[in-house]
Amino acid sequence: MIKINDVSKAFGQGAGSVVALDNINLTIESGKFVAITGKSGSGKSTLLNIVGALEKPDTGYVEIDGENLNILKADSLANFRNKKLGYVFQSFYLEPEFSVIENVALPLLIAGEKKADREEKAKIMINKLGLFDKTSEKVKNLSGGQKQRVAIARALVNDPDIILADEPTGNLDSANGNEVIEILRQIANDGKTVLMVTHNLQDANVADYKITLKDGKIIETTE
Amino acid sequence: MKTGQLLYLAKLSLKSTKKSNKIIIFMLAVSMIILIPVTVLWISVNVSVNKQINSMPYMLYSEAEIKDYRLEDEGVDEGLDGKQNISEFEDIETKIVYERYYLTNAFAMVDVVVSLGGQEYALNKEERFYNVIDIDKSDYFFPKNLNSYGSVFADNCDKSFDGNGKKQVIVCEKLLDEIGVEKEDAYGKKITVSSSTPYYDGYLCYEYEIVGIIRKEVSAMYDGADTFMSALLFFCSSNVYDEKGEGVLKPVMTGNGYEYGFVNIDKKDVLNKEYMMIGLGSTSYEIDSFASTHIFIESSSYKKLAQINDSLIHKAISLDTSQLFAKYKQLYDISNVLTFIFASAGTVLLIITIMYYYLNIKHDIEKRKNFLTVMRAVGAHDKDIPKVYMMQSNIICAIASLIFLVIGLALCISIKYAVAAIMKVSGISVAISVSWSMIFISLFGMIAIMFAITNIIAFVCTVRLSKQSIIEILHKEQ
C-alpha cells in the first residue's frame, strides 16, 4: 500500500518558485493500476518521482508498505528502490551497447545475485515479454517498442511490488504504445501495483482508477 | 556493489569502448616502457655513486711531506678563551690541558700510539709527574721522573682496534735511552706506561707492545709543542722503521695540524685497517675536504675532536678519489643525457596518455550519463558509479602493466648487464651496479603510480555525476 501524506514540493526559490505539488494526500492500495493524468506542469511526474523515492518532498512523507521513505538514508533508499520498485521511463534509459539480457539483469546484478541466477531470471522475464529471440541482441538494434519492453522487463526482473511508469508510451507509436499498456495492465492483474503517469487519456482509461492533477493538487479521482 | 559485481559491470562497459581502450593500454605501456630504463639507470648510477662516495676512504699520501704548519683558528672557541693558538697560552697549566686534548683525544682513537719522547717543558718540570714506576710483567717501565709526552698520551689511550686489548706503541728512541734499552732489543717488548697528573686523581696504567721507534733526530728537530707535534707526526710516519732498522715498520695514517693521510702504504693495502694510525691536530675539519687530496683542519676547537673521532673511526682510510670522480662524472654525464632524452619522451607521452584517458572517460560518462543515473535509480549506491570506472581503470592498467612488465623487465636486465660490461671496460674499480631490487622496485613502483593516476582520474570524472540528483539528470536529458 502506498500512502502519500501531506506531500508538497516546490521548485526554485523566493518569488520565482513554482509549486509542483500542494498538500497531496492519497492512498493507493496494493495491486491497483493507477493512472496519474493532468496537463504539463500539473505535478504528475513530480508525484511519481516522490513515490518512486527519486525525490524527497519539501513537506509530508510517503509510506510504502509501512516504510517511511523520508527517514531512509541514501544507501537504504537505493536498496529499497532495488527491491520494492521498478521504473519504466519514457526514454527507456537502456545501455545501447549492452545486450537485452545484460540490461534486463541490471537490477539483479545490483542486488548481488549470482550470474547464473540473474541470467535465468532475466531470461524468464525476457520470454514473458516476448523478446526471447532478442536475448543476446544489443539494445541499440531494437525498435522502440522492443526497447520499452526491455525496460519493462528490467523493471520487473527483481519482482518489485510497485511499478512506476512515467509516460511509458510517450516515444512509441500507437501500436507499440497499446502493447505496452497491455503489458502494464497484465502486470497489475498479476497483483503488482502500477502507477502510470500519462497525458494520454486513452491509456489512462485502462487503469483501475485515474487521478487528475492540476496546479499540484488532486482535482479528480475517477474509477 | 561488491568487487565481483563492479568487475562484471566494468568489463561490460569496457567492451563498448574497445578501440579507445586499446589505444590507452598501448600508450600507457609504451610510456612506462620508455620511462623505466631511465628510472632504473638514473637511480642506480646515483645510488651506487653516492654509496661509494660515502664509504670512500681518505686520501692517500704518495709521500710524506714535512710541513711546518701553525695551528689556525677559525674563530674563538670558548675553551681557548679567545686565543688563536695554543702556543699563546702563557699559563703552563692551561696549556697542558689543551695540549692534552690536542694530543690525547687524537690518540685515543688509535691502535698504535705515538709516544713522543724527549720534549721537555722548561717550566714547572717538577710538577709534571707523568711517570710512575709500575712493576708487573712488562719488560720495561718508565722511570718516575721522566717527562714524556708518551705518558701524557698514555693517560688517555684506552682504545684498541685489534680486538685483543693489546695496545701498540711507537716510542721515541730518546725514551728508550732514558730507560736504558737499545732500540734493537725493544721491538715486540712490552712496556708499561702509567701516570698520574696534577689534574686527575688516580693512576692509569697501560701495557703496550713496542712496534715502532722514532729516531732521536726526528724528535729533537723542533721546539714548541705544536710545531713539534705537527712535524713529528709526519716524521713519525715516514720514520717508523722495521725491526731491522731499515725501511718502514708499518704503514701509518697520520697528520699534522692541517693535513693527514696515509704514508708508507700501497693504495691496494689502504683498506686493511690493521695498518692504520691516526694523528691529529686539535682542530676541526671540513667534511668536504675528505674528498680532496688533503684534509684540512682549520679550527682549534677541541670540542670538535669528538666529531673527528666519530668520523674517523669509521673512515680512517683513504683513497685517491680524483680519478674516480672524473670517471663518475663521466658516468653522471652519460646517464644525465640518456635520462634527459628518454625521460622527456616518456614524460610527454605519459602526459598525452593521461590527458587522452581523462577525455575518454569524460566522453564515456557523458554518453552514458542516463544509463549511469538509471543504475542509481534501480538501486546502485551513489559511490558505485565512481567504483565502476575505477574498476575499469584497474583493468586497463592491469593489461598495460602486463605488457610493460614483460618488456620492461627485459630492458632492465639488458641495462644491468650493459652497465656491468661498461664498468669492466672502463676499469673503474668501484662499480656502478643495477641491482635486482632496484629493478623490481622501479617496475612495480611505476605500475603503482599508473594505477594511482588512472584511478584518480576515474574518480574525479565520476564523483560529480554520482552526487547529482537522479531526476535532475534524467529530466535534463528528456
Molecular structure report:
The complex is a heterodimer of chains A (223) and B (478). With 223 residues, chain A is α/β, with parallel strands linked by helices. Chain A has one domain (29-53, 74-222): Rossmann fold, CATH 3.40.50.300. Chain A contains 8 helices and 10 strands. Chain A is globular. The two termini of chain A are 18 Å apart. Helices cover 53% and strands 10% of the residues of chain B. Chain B has 14 helices and 9 strands. Chain B has a 5-stranded mixed β-sheet. A two-stranded antiparallel sheet of chain B has the order 6-7. A two-stranded antiparallel sheet of chain B has the order 8-9. In chain B, 42% of the residues are buried. Mean pLDDT of chain B is 59; it is low at 53-80, 99-166, 194-205, 217-245 and 247-322. Chain A binds chain B through residues 45, 49, 52, 54-55, 74-75, 78-79, 81-83, 86-87, 89-91, 93-95, 97-98, 102, 106-107, 109-112, 115, 154, 158, and chain B through 1-2, 5, 8-9, 12, 15-16, 368, 370-371, 373-382, 384, 469-471, 474-475, 477-478.
Q: Largest sheet of chain B, if any?
A: 5 strands, mixed
What Rg of chain A do the Cα atoms give?
17 Å
Query: What structural category arises from helix and sheet content of chain B?
Result: alpha/beta
Catalogue the unreliable spans of chain A. Answer: none
Structure at a glance:
With 223 residues, chain A is an alpha/beta fold. Chain A has a single domain (29-53, 74-222), classed as P-loop containing nucleotide triphosphate hydrolases (Rossmann fold, 3-Layer(aba) Sandwich), CATH 3.40.50. Helices cover 35% and strands 27% of the residues of chain A.
List the helices and strands and how they pair.
The complex is a heterodimer of chains A (223) and B (478).
Chain A (H helix, E strand, L loop, with lengths): L1 E10 L6 E11 L4 E6 L5 H8 L7 E6 L2 E2 L5 H11 E4 L11 H5 L1 H6 L3 H14 L15 H13 L5 E5 L7 H16 L3 E5 L3 H4 L4 E6 L2 E6 L1
Parallel strand pairs in A: 3-8, 3-9, 6-7, 7-8
Antiparallel strand pairs in A: 1-2, 1-4, 4-5, 9-10
Chain B lengths: L2 H13 L2 H37 L37 H16 L4 E4 L24 E2 L7 H8 L10 E6 H7 L3 H4 L3 E8 L2 E15 L1 H4 L5 H15 L12 E4 L4 E4 L20 E2 L11 E3 L5 H11 L6 H46 L1 H9 L6 H43 L9 H32 L2 H8 L1
Parallel strand pairs in B: 1-3, 2-4, 3-5
Antiparallel strand pairs in B: 4-5, 6-7, 8-9
Helix pairs in contact in B: 1-12, 2-10, 2-12, 2-13, 3-4, 10-13, 11-14, 12-13
